[in-house]
């Protein structure tokens, strides 16, 4: 007999973003989760009970009186493996923070002993109000994951912070929390900066020098840090992935732009993880017009100059006391040394605290959903991270970062 499907409670509160939770529900059910939808009465004004019932395959109720003989106000929370509230309005978070229980969802939140994830959605002024921020702090202090809302178009013509994060990214973060079994908010109150992707150095308006970095590992690091309670800034170089839920994304193209963004964010960061692959070289001259083919078949000469070494710069000239800096080394090994020998020399040369070493012989790692690594510390300790999802590798890295911050 197969394993029991994880039991997920999808709480839906009364905001216009309730319709987006239909996509979140679909992702849970199609990936084999047993989902019980618990809407508030206000949520049913936006999306009706028949929709939730059809998508979940279960009856749906908002009050504690439906099928009262089954004691749903206690039973649903007691048997859940994960509770996700999306959208989470200011009202539902206030009730959760103060222990109010006047409907089925708030009773479920009181009885649940599993991880709880809130995905807020509201107008900017409501999110920024001191009462809401106090409630968010209370929920986080109790171990709940409260995702930072996204910035963008809100109801009507308003634009600002308060938009529900992409349902696909809420789903990925929820899976991350569920896979770990218990929330470890060991990065709560910390600000971390992560870089991801590969930079481009332009030859002309249409051509550039680049590399094969997909940004997947960097995005997994950002998502994992958010799940562990951190305030996360992600500097993304030419990555075409959706923004991770609860993460501020700064988009760049060139190594110079990446450097500027990292230096701008470094003074506020308790930890910096440089997972991006910045180009080592750039053309000394960039043509204003597209470079044309020559009639005689000869190729143009391209002169390169070295780019700034961002990892070395931030490691040796730290802008915040006690800051932990993590570098990445994509190595293949050569006549001068093995992968680990080259990486050990790089760690000493750069001056960072930890170096995540990937053996990329034959193009391994790039674009793959899986990864394996060795994490070298400045103290000379080498920790093997076995092959697994990039999310699991991300958590192994944050485990060491959190331990270093505590130490």
TrEMBL record:
Pathway: Cofactor biosynthesis; coenzyme A biosynthesis; CoA from (R)-pantothenate: step 2/5; Cofactor biosynthesis; coenzyme A biosynthesis; CoA from (R)-pantothenate: step 3/5
A GO CC annotation given for this chain: phosphopantothenoylcysteine decarboxylase complex
Region annotation Phosphopantothenate--cysteine ligase: where it falls in the sequence: 192-407
Region (Phosphopantothenoylcysteine decarboxylase): 1-191
Domain of life: Bacteria
GO molecular function terms listed in the Swiss-Prot or TrEMBL record: FMN binding; metal ion binding; phosphopantothenate--cysteine ligase activity; phosphopantothenoylcysteine decarboxylase activity
Residues of the signal peptide: none
Keywords attached to this entry: Decarboxylase, Flavoprotein, FMN, Ligase, Lyase, Magnesium, Metal-binding, Multifunctional enzyme
Domain Flavoprotein positions: 7-177
Catalytic activity as recorded in UniProt: (R)-4'-phosphopantothenate + L-cysteine + CTP = N-[(R)-4-phosphopantothenoyl]-L-cysteine + CMP + diphosphate + H(+); N-[(R)-4-phosphopantothenoyl]-L-cysteine + H(+) = (R)-4'-phosphopantetheine + CO2
UniProt cofactor(s): Mg(2+); FMN
Domain (DNA/pantothenate metabolism flavoprotein C-terminal) ranges: 187-403
Gene3D superfamilies: CoaB-like, Flavin prenyltransferase-like
Role according to the record: Catalyzes two steps in the biosynthesis of coenzyme A. In the first step cysteine is conjugated to 4'-phosphopantothenate to form 4-phosphopantothenoylcysteine, in the latter compound is decarboxylated to form 4'-phosphopantotheine. Catalyzes two sequential steps in the biosynthesis of coenzyme A. In the first step cysteine is conjugated to 4'-phosphopantothenate to form 4-phosphopantothenoylcysteine. In the second step the latter compound is decarboxylated to form 4'-phosphopantotheine.
Name of the molecule in the record: Coenzyme A biosynthesis bifunctional protein CoaBC
């Amino acid at each position: 007999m197969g394993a029991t499907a994880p039991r997920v409670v999808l709480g839906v509160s009364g905001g216009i973003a309730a319709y987006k939770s239909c996509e979140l529900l679909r992702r849970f059910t199609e990936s084999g989760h047993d989902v019980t939808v618990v809407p508030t009465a206000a949520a049913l004004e936006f999306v009706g009970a028949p929709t939730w019932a059809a998508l979940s395959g279960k009856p749906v109720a908002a009050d504690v009186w439906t099928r009262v003989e089954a004691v749903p106000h206690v039973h649903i929370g007691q048997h859940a493996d994960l509770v996700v509230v999306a959208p989470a309005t200011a009202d539902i978070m206030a009730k959760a923070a103060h222990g109010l229980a006047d409907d089925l969802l708030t009773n479920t939140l009181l009885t649940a002993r599993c991880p709880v994830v809130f995905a807020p959605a509201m107008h900017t002024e409501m999110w920024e109000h001191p009462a809401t921020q106090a409630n968010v702090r209370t929920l986080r202090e109790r171990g709940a994951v409260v995702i930072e809302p996204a910035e963008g178009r809100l109801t009507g013509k308003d634009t600002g912070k308060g938009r529900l994060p992409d349902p696909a990214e809420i789903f990925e973060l929820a899976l991350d929390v569920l896979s770990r079994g218990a929330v470890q908010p060991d990065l709560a109150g910390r600000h971390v900066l992560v870089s991801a992707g590969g930079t481009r150095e332009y030859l002309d308006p249409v051509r550039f020098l680049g590399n094969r970095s997909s940004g997947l590992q960097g995005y997994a690091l950002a998502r994992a840090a958010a799940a562990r309670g951190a305030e996360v800034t992600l500097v993304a170089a030419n990555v075409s992935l959706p923004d991770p839920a609860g993460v501020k994304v700064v988009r760049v193209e060139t190594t110079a732009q990446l450097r500027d963004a990292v230096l701008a964010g470094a003074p506020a960061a308790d930890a910096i993880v440089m997972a991006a692959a910045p180009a080592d070289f750039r053309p000394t001259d960039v043509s204003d017009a597209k470079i044309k083919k020559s009639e005689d078949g000869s190729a143009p000469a391209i002169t390169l100059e070295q780019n700034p070494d961002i990892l070395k710069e931030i490691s040796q000239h730290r802008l915040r006391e006690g800051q932990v800096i993590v570098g990445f080394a994509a190595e293949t090994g050569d006549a001068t040394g093995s992968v680990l020998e080259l990486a050990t020399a790089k760690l000493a040369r750069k001056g960072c605290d930890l170096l995540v070493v990937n053996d990329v012989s034959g193009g391994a790692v790039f674009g793959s959903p899986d990864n394996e690594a060795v994490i070298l510390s400045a103290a000379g300790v080498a920790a093997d991270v076995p092959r697994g999802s990039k999310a699991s590798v991300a958590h192994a890295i944050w485990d060491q970062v959190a331990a270093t911050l505590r130490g």
